[in-house]
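Anyone? Bumping this.
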Amino acid sequence: MHLPAPGGQSPPRRPNGYPDMIEKLVLAMQRVCFRHRLLILLALLGFTVVMALFASRLHMSAGFDKQLPQDHEYIQTFNQYREVLFGANRIIVTVEAAKGDIWNEKALTKLYDVTQALFFMKGVDRRTVTSLWTPNTRAVQITEEGMKAEDVIGGDVTVKALTPDNITAIRERTIVGGFIGSLVANDSSSAMVVAELADPDPQTGERLDYAEFSQRLESEVRNTFSDADVKIRIIGFAKQMGDISEGATSVIEFFALAFLLTAAAVYWYTRSWLLTFLPLACSLVSVVWQFGTITLLGFGLDPLAILVPFLVFAIGVSHGIQQVNYIAKEVINGADGYTAASRSFTGLLVPGTLALITAFVGFATLVLVPIPMIRELAITASVGVAYKIVTNLIMLPVLASYFRFDERFVLRATKMEGLRNRTMASLGVHIANPRNAAIGTLVCLALLVVAVWQSQGRHVGHVLPGAPELHDDSRYNQDVEAVVARYALGLDLLTVVVESPADGCYRHDVMSHVDRLTWYLANVPGVLSAQSLPSLTKLAASGVNEGNPKWAALPQEELTLGEAVRQVPEGMRLFNADCTLLPVNLYLADHKASTIKEVVAAVKHFREMQPFPGVTVRLASGNAGVQAATNEVVEHSELPMMLYVYATILVLVFAVYRDWRAMIACCLPLTLATFLGYWFMKELDIGLTVATLPVMVLAVGIGVDYAFYIYNRLQMHLAHGEDIVTAFKQALREIGVATVFTAVTLSIGVATWSFSALKFQADMGMLLTFMFMVNMIMAITLLPALAVTIDVLIPRRGPVRAPLMAH
Amino acid sequence: MKSMQIRRTLVGLCLAASAAVFAAAPADAAKVPAPAMKARLAAKVPVTGLVRAGNALVAVGDYGTIVRSTDEGKTWQQAEVPVSALLTAVNFVDEMRGWAVGHGGLILATTDGGANWQVQATLDEKPVLLSVYFADAKRGYAVGAYGTAFGTTDGGREWKSMAVGSGHDADLHLNHVFGTRDGKLFIAAETGLAFRSTDRGASWAKLATGVTGSLWSGLERADGEVVLLGMSGRVIASRDGGTSWRALETGTEQSLTSGIALPNGGLIVVGAGGAVLRGDGNAPLQLEVRPDRQNLAAVAAGPTGALVVAGQLGVERLGSSK
């Protein structure tokens, strides 16, 4: 069988060293697919309809738990105690005076209204609602007669009865009660209502829908009470989750936008609606299959994983363009639609499969990361990529075989072709010139060294303050910033869980141990404050002794100790009912991985050096504790992931080309691109997270596509006896434009993500755009330069094996 | 940036060093008193007592922490202390020799100005000790909860129990013991009680203070006037060695914890809620409430007059007392 190579020259058929099995398989597949083309297309259509039915049932599911490494020590602690520890279900609403302070009738009235609104809101645990207006806010004064507690705002003061005099009294009691910094801002510019959520609902047992609750907070609290004088700020885990789900819905728009941009770009490239339709339709079909499969597997579409169907679509378009490029070139050279399509099929099946298998393996290795979210993503992505082999390497050319191309298209395309070829050919001349190639290789090697050096100290985890999923200028994070700035309140909490024998809080030795642990941890850099039952019990002990600071110690005697313990409010969640749980809450300066790591190391050190019989010190709950676990897993997973992906690429390249030169020429540019990506992450403060770990792995899997397509052509021309410079010029002329175009198209699509309301999506978008472009540039510059340089330095001894499509 | 790095490393080393101390301790650390942890934030520990010793300032507080400053409170160094209980008071007879007491009947002593401390005695039944006073290097007194009172005549080697109050008064907390230049001893106690001894602690007489709220501390002014202070912002003074008392106007209801006499005859008193009272010479006390309203427990003046306060948030230099 004789197939002319695209681009006009018809090389003579020459024997090649390819494994006969693969060669026979490809030809057999080509025969089967094109002989039964109608049957195959009908079968695929039927499958698509069935999958579309399943896909229509796909729902969005934002799962917080899925982002956590469930088997990690810290997460097991977190899961075990999440219901009883502090803060998980807390919601904070602040009433902030636009001007001046809150010590006036208007602001205090507003505070009263917000308190009432939260009290009557469904989903809020009424008993826990706390503000200056609630009766659980009491100012305790120690006098000679004993402890005297009075309401900060007494029952006799109503909103209507607020006068400058009683406002002054309220203010004084607020100060005396120590509520400055907790319920009232340090500078009195704002006051707070705190409440815990009833989740699950004690009556119905239903879980609270955070998205819906968050919307009610907007409509019933923020919109109702904010005006020119008063700003309402709302923070808390439920609100954060609500805002993330809301941001995730904007994804649909990005998808639509990316689709339109891609369609326009493909049309510009092909100048044919038919050829535009082919890659887009085939790629969409595989997305439909993928959605169907996700539903069948029982998954929902997660905001984090929403990247995947989009990526799968993008990969599809990328391979589709190689196909239409091949077909168009055949048509220009005079082939009819059927012949052009069947040649494209045979010509691209091997490099296409190679590329897709690499991407598949890349995705599949992510299953090894013990984070459910990433596993789900790995499964859906690898399924999607596997489908691509069918939709883009088989369905697309088979479908194309029905198309007819008229004279006008051929004329138009030929004209375009000439211009593009000239551009690429001149590029090829410059790059493939041995001297330039050597210079290019040296420059790139130098760049690699710089990139490796510069990418050191990349961040792990989340870097910026506030909710890491959202942008720093998102309303939620602005609210967080405003609240943290005004209150003596840390939002980065790491809880060390201390398990003790029953009634541990009445044992002096156990309490002393926890007290020492608290003081030890309070001294770790990055810890702003440490709070535990012993530390508050000591204050209480001083309180029962007339407030004398010399009594602020844990009483030796069990009854006295118990008396002091009972003074500590239960709401602080510093002990459980049977006193088997004595958490130490550490408020951290930030949630940077370096900060958290130091704290975690200190806890481990203490627990190793100061064991105490019957007492277990466990890491870790709180947002920082959870993040510590995720950071550890992500950090430890990255290198093995990358090694697996590179190993796969090396094995596949070697299997197909049987040439160590190919292995170097394909992998070195990828390595440089990867390190440039790390450098990019460091410069842009993008941390290695659950969201960005997959991106880097995927980027390698996809980036190698360009290398495969280009090296494939290069190898073919070399096999035809051309010298390396000519071979590369030819290769670049034939598919250079398609490759550049593919990368640009993909980048445009992915770049739209940078505008996402969710920071991690924006990070992913930026990183992926960067990786697409860099991988493309590497494939058309460093790859040939390397190939040429290696060839010059170590000339080949034997003949070059031709790739399959050289028949 | 660089120095920050170095500091962090140093802290890391300190933590590691303290951990090494832990490691050396037996596993059942609860039974044997652990030495005070070397802490990065030693000067931020809750402080209960603060005195001047020669050119140094020495503060004692929680977790057996003792810190020492030789630059009038600008920087503080943590002393070596073999215990980690709450310390409650400290007293020096000269710039080298001092004593500190704490919970668990602990009496500590130093002979190097407060840099290194040894356990001198652990009193039977481990009472909560609240105050220590040494009239000279030999004769000392320690008082505390539930009428605990001990005296020594050999520099602290041997402590003998003293009976201060009698009857109902015998069980009350003895909050502060101090002496005057003419050799009298005073004890400020719970429920407005105060005692005086004119025979070096052999016998104690109850004073008619005329108040019912607990008295927490006392001092002798430059002109010999004896001052007692305590709950409800109360300051009382006696010009006749404790026989008759008059109340001083303070303008605060906060509990007052401690005071010092100024060389100009004046007085500085600190207390809960950030209260700082100051009267120069014989002028009335002026109240100043510190904005953070933190509870203050002690006050001292450095050798050149710098004023240092201490309390819940550790030691803090206020400025000049002049």
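Late reply, but here is one note on the structure posted above: Chain B has one helix and 27 strands.
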